[in-house]
Structure formats: C-alpha cells, structure tokens
Amino acid sequence: MKNAAYPIKPKRSRWKLWSIYIVLFLIYVWALSGVPLEGFKETAGQISKAIINGLFSPDWDYVYLPEGEDLLRGLLDTLAIAILGTFVSAFLCVPFAFWAANNLSKGVILTQSGKFMLSFVRTFPELVMALIFIKVVGPGSFAGVLALGLHSIGMLGKLFAEEIENIDLGPTEALKATGANPIQMLWFAVVPQVIPGFISYTLYRFEINLRSASVLGIIGAGGIGTPLIFAIQSRNWSRVGIILLGIIVMVTIIDMISSSIRKRIV
Amino acid sequence: MIEFKQVSKIYPNGVVGLDNINLTIKKGEFVVIVGLSGAGKSTFLRSINRLHEITSGEIIIDNTSITKAKGKQLLKIRRDIGMIFQSFNLVKRSTVIRNVLAGRVGYHSTMRTLLGLFPPEDKKLAMRALERVNIIDKAYSRSDQLSGGQQQRVSIARALAQEAKIILADEPVASLDPLTTVQVLEDLKTINVELGITLVVNLHSIELARQYATRIIGLQEGRVVFDGPVEQATDERFKEIYGQPFEVKNNEESVNLPISH
Amino acid sequence: MRKALTYPSHTELSSMSMRRKKHVWTALFLILLFAWSLWQTESSLLDFINGFSNMFDLLIQMVPPNWAYFDNVVPPMLDTIRMALLGTTIGAILAIPFALLSASNVFKNKALYYPIRFILNLIRTIPELLLAAIFVAILGLGPLPGIFALGIFSMGIIAKLTYEATEGIDPGPLEAMTAVGANKIQWIAYSVVPQVTPYYISFVLYALEINVRAAAILGLVGAGGIGEYYDKTLGFLEYDKVSTIIICTLLVVLAIDYVSMKLREKLL
C-alpha cells in the first residue's frame, strides 16, 4: 500500500492521552459518587423566582434608617474592618518579610522557617480564624479585624519578602562603604526601594480584605454580613437585594480607587 | 481566474490603499507583486480573498463575485484560495499534521471538524502535501520545533491540502535566510508548474521576482505602475518608474531610499 | 532633558516642597483613616494586645490535637474535595462561552463583549460564602448549594483570566483560518482553542486551589463539607478537635496546591 510509507501517530502520545482520560474519569466517578445529587427542594423554583424579584426590587428604605442598623452603617463598618485589618497586617508583616527574604545575608534555615511560617498562616482560612477570634474576644467587628489582620500577614509577608528579594543591592554596599550601621543601611538603601511595592501590595490586599469583610458578619464577626444573613434566613429578598447592591457598589468603587492609586505608584 | 474591476480601497483614515485597479490574472499564472513598503501590496493580496474589504469596485474569482458573496458562499470561495503568510501563521503548539488538516475544515460539517474526525482520504491528502514539500517526517512534531523554512513549507502544505485553485503568498520569504528562501520559492514554482495552481506572490525583491514569476505587477501608492511579462521588467524600466534602482539584494533593509548626501 | 550640573530651579524647589506637603497630607489622611476605623469597629490598641495574647492562650489549649477525632474528620474532608472538584468543573464549563464572548479579538462587537465583561465583574464582587448562603436558601442544606456557589464563583475567575489570555494570543493563525474559509465555530476551534487551552487548564487548576480553601468554610452556612465541623467543635469548646480539623484542612490544601502546581509547571 502506498500510504504505508507515511508516518503514523506516535504510540506514546496516544497512550499518554488515554491514561489522562482514564485518570480524569476515575476522579469524576469518585467525586460524583460521594455527593447526594438528589434532594432538590420542590420549592426551589418558587424561591428562585422570589429571589430574583427581590433582587430587582431592592428595599431602598433600608439604605438609611435614623434609628441605626441600616445599609450605610453596615457598609461603613465593613469598610472599617477591612481598613483596620489591612493596617494591622501591613505593619505586622514587615518583620516577617525581612525574616523570610533570602538576600539580606542570613542563614538558609532562618529564611526557610520564615517562609514556612508565612505559608502556614496563609493556608488558614480567614473565616476559621474569625470563628476562633470570636471565641477569644467575643462576637463583633473586632474579631473580624483580628482575623483579617492575622490572615493577611501570611500573604502580604510573602509578597513583601519577594519585593525585598528583588531589590538592587548596590545602594546597600555603597552605604556600607560610607560606614553606615545596619539600621541606617536598611533605612536609606532598602526602605526607599521597597516602599512603592509595599504600598501597591497593601492596596491589593485591601481590595481582597474588603470582599472578605463583607462576609465576616455571616458568622458574627461584624460588618454588613450579619444583616445580610438575617435577611436571607428570614426570606426578606428585597432587603437581600439592596444589601447585595450595596456590597457590589462599594467593592466596585473601592477597586476603582485602589487600582488607580496602584497605577500611579508603579 | 481573478478579475479586478475598478477596485479601490480607502482606509477610514483617508489613506488610499488601492486606486482604481483593473486587471485579470489568468489560471496558471505565477504573478509577483512588487513595490516599496506601503505601496498597497498586502492590501491588494488580502482583497482577493476579502481578508480586507474594498471600498468600491468588484473582484471576481472564477466568474463568481467575492465582493458580493455572503455567508456560506464567501467561505466556499475562500476555501478555494490558499494563503501563505510572512510569519507562517501556524498554531505553534499544534502538530504539523493538525495544522495541515486545518486547511480541510471548509470541506466538512462543523460537528465533524470539531471532533477532529477527518476522513482517511483527508489524512492521505495532508500526508501527500507534506511529502511534496519534503517534511513528511515531521508530520507529528509540534510546529514550534521546526525551523522557519520548515514552518513555511508546512503552511504551503496547508494550502495544498486545501486543494486550492489559487494560492496567495504575502511576503512568504521575508522572514527566511537566503538558502531557505530559494527552497520555498522552488516549492511554490513546482506547485505552479505541476499542479497548475495560480500563484499571486508579494515580494520585496525584483531579482527573485524575475527568477520565478511569469508576470510582474508593480504597485506604487495603490496604483498599478507596471504590469507585464518578466522580460519587460528590466532595471531600466523600474528605474524609470520608481526614479531609482528598485533594490539590490533580496531582503527588506536593502530597498534603496533616495540618497541625500 | 535636564542637564546634570544645574542647581534646582525655583519651580523645582517649590515642586519639592509641594511633594513634601503631599506626603504630610497623605500621612495625616492615613492616621485619620486609622483612627476612624478604630472608632467604627469599637476597638483600641489595647484590645489588640489583649486579643493577640488571648489568642495565644487558646492556641495552647489546641495542643495536643485529638488524633482519635481524625476518623470523624476524613469523610467530610473528602466531601470538601469532591465539592471543590465538581464546583470547579461547573465553573470551568460555564467560563468557556463567557471567556470567548468577552475576548475582543474573537467577537469584535463592542455591544457584545462590554456587557458580558460587566456581568463577569459583577459576579466576581460577590463572595462565595454569600452565594452559598443564597443557594442554601434555594436548594436546602447539603453539598449541592455549595457546589453551585463554587461553580458560579470560579466561573468568574476562570472566565476573566481566560479572556485576558485570549486577547494576548498570536493573531496570525486567526487570519490564516479566516483565509482557509472556516466558519466561526471552526475558526475558534482551530485557531483560538489550541492557543488558549494550556492557559485555560492552568487557570482551572488555579481555581481548584482557591475552591478547596473556599469549600472548607462553606459548611458554616450549611453548604456541606468540613465547615460545619468547625462550627460544631468550636461551639462545644473542643479545641483539641478543632486543631485536628485545622491540621487536616491544611494537609489537604497543601497537597492540592502541590499537585496543581506540578501540573501547571508541566503545562506552560
């Protein structure tokens, strides 16, 4: 036959492809076997309709109530939690960042232990942290602040450490040559180089913290989440609608402000 | 057969791309379009398969107007016109054979091509095309593992697998070294002679144009300033038209600019 | 261009002092912001010291972890992984049309891709726990609302990242497929898809990493997985069990991260 001379598809790639398919298939069989996929409530359709109706006819009166506990105060509370949590982590993570950065002449063990600490804190969900802090300081905004603050240290510390690792070591050497002590070297050669990066990452973290802060209230750690979960539980969908709208507007505005500042810095 | 009837193209910013072009390219011709950068060569070529829209006039391919064609009809006309690009335009992560088979999609239903179920004849056709350009041994290699010249031959194979009656080539050798340049142009010439496919090729180099073309069309500011067989395309004639020696070597940088010292 | 050896001019000096003024104002603004948020959240600096030190006491109660409880933790932990997997899958499938419709080099119609991008942005502002709470209200307690919430949430992430990657692909093959006479679907399948697929898979894996973390807390609103065990054990002040759950969560998160990272390295 004439086409016998043509190369045929290499067997190895075919075999590889099939093994990937089989592994994927097994994973999905396993995943689907464990999840009870029945048990739809019969009212699901009705409730969905009610939710959509509620979302499109938000309860505007809730925006401001003279006696308190309204949307604006809830959002301000959320914003304050995010701001304070970000402040706390931005300050507390700096020593960790220097600890974990590998270029400022320290041992490998020290650096690695710092990196491990940060990644440990990072994998810990902030809501679990908030639950624990509620046990410690009682329910309320403050537990939320502490949870956000501690959780963000993990991520900010990592980003800050990377920023420190990327600096140009020339100025440090120059200062060393003029006889500066380590603190002076840090202040005049390292700090000016890392500040823009630090600010940018802090703002980025602030955007994330704001989203987190809006759900902390669901478990009782302050902010707009508390009235939201009450509204959901009491099926007050038009109130859910206005709160969701409020969150979306706030998050969008803060994102816009924050990203415009970040663009100007970098 | 490709017919240009009073074809003009004016870009939205007012730049004239093509200016009242009237000509006919007959079946089996090897036409090379020459001209300086910005003379409208690329616009000319891309208006043939309507990758660029023209603003007035009409282009007729084998007695069907591509200018007026819509939907499926346009796709069918395009299917019969292969195209080769300066930067090869292969999907670099895909295998060579898949890139060649991509030329066949116009012949099959959407569903079939989505599943990649090409009939055995198509695969044979693709292999034969690769054989013709001498890279059959690379059929199952990833395209980005090939050299520039090899990639360009894959894109020729794609046009061949497409069973195109016309092949357009936009600066097919501008990214290649002199040696592979010759190989690619030889491939195109063979296709033209042996399969009778009409070729319309943009080139910077008048030298190469003379070597391979049967007919040369010179463009300047979107107008046809020369159209004739190779024998008439002499240096003197081009100096007359362009007011300077058109070019010396066969790469882009060497297009001579007016000397001003 | 400024010459090297000139003294700062008058305007430059005044711009320097303006910059200093700006810095002072920024610092003042930040201090005010800090003070306001302390007041708004009814907290003080002393509270911080107390808070973190109380936290320390609680951490001590967490060791040693209750290893016997491990057997109880494993099944809900596996459920959590299942939820993350299925949620990511739903998100990955839903993301495909959204990503393609948002990419300006695939569909050139502004009236199409701007509204779609707007919807994507909206979805990404809603935290997954909120979505889960709403889905629980619709579907009742269990992992199903959790899966849907994760699906919608990760759809937003995957679609955004994928459309941005799509806009960065090599336009050459797109033009080539137009020239070949492919229809729109064939054109996408043969020029866009092969170029974007490795990025897309990488984003899906990234979403899986995020979803495993997210799935671990969805139980707090009754949407299945390990989350409700946090609530239960903390409610009974069983801190040794809490630490068992935490360790288990961390192990799973780290394991998934590791596998996902290795796969992504292979892809790109």
General description of the model:
- The complex is a heterotrimer of chains A (266), B (261) and C (268).
- With 266 residues, chain A is an all-alpha fold.
- Chain A contains ten helices and no strands.
- Chain A has helices at residues 11-34, 44-56, 71-100, 108-123, 126-137, 141-165, 170-177, 182-216, 225-233, 237-265.
- The longest helix of chain A is centred in the last third of the chain and has 35 residues, at 182-216.
- With 261 residues, chain B is of the alpha/beta class.
- In chain B, 34% of the residues lie in helices and 23% in strands.
- Chain B has nine helices and ten strands.
- In chain B, the strands form two sheets. In chain B, strands 6-7-8-3-9-10 form a six-stranded mixed β-sheet, with helices on both faces. In chain B, strands 2-1-4-5 form a four-stranded antiparallel β-sheet, with helices on one face.
- In chain B, strand 4 (56-61) and strand 5 (64-65) form a beta hairpin.
- Chain B is globular, with a radius of gyration of 19 Å.
- Chain C has two domains: 10-62; 68-267, MetI-like fold (Orthogonal Bundle).
- In chain C, 81% of the residues lie in helices and 0% in strands.
- Chain C has ten helices and no strands.
- The mean pLDDT of chain C is 89.
- Chains in contact: A-B, A-C, B-C.
- Chains B and C meet through helix 2, strand 6 and helix 4 of B and helix 7 and helix 8 of C.
CATH topology of chain A: MetI-like fold
**Topology pattern of chain C, helix = H, strand = E:** HHHHHHHHHH
CATH architecture of the largest domain in chain C: Orthogonal Bundle
Total DSSP E strands of chain A: 0
CATH topology of the largest domain in chain C: MetI-like fold
Biggest β-sheet description of chain C: none
| Terminus-to-terminus distance of chain A | 65 Å
**What's the CATH class label of chain A?**
Mainly Alpha
> What is the CATH H-level superfamily of the largest domain in chain C?
MetI-like
Largest sheet of chain A: none
User: What is the overall pLDDT average of chain A?
Assistant: 86
Helix content of chain A: over 70%
Oligomer: heterotrimer
How many strand units of chain C? 0
N-to-C span of chain C: 43 Å
The structural domain count of chain A equals 1
Q: Which band does the percent of strand residues of chain A land in? A: under 5%
- Strand % of chain C is under 5%
Number of domains of chain C: 2
What is the mean predicted local confidence, pLDDT of chain C? 89
pLDDT < 50 stretches of chain C: none
GO molecular function (chain B): ABC-type phosphonate transporter activity; ATP binding; ATP hydrolysis activity
Pfam family, one (chain B): ABC_tran
InterPro entries (chain B): AAA+_ATPase, ABC_transporter-like_ATP-bd, ABC_transporter-like_CS, ABC_transpr_PhnC, MetN_ABC_transporter-like, P-loop_NTPase
Protein name (chain B): Phosphonate ABC transporter ATP-binding protein
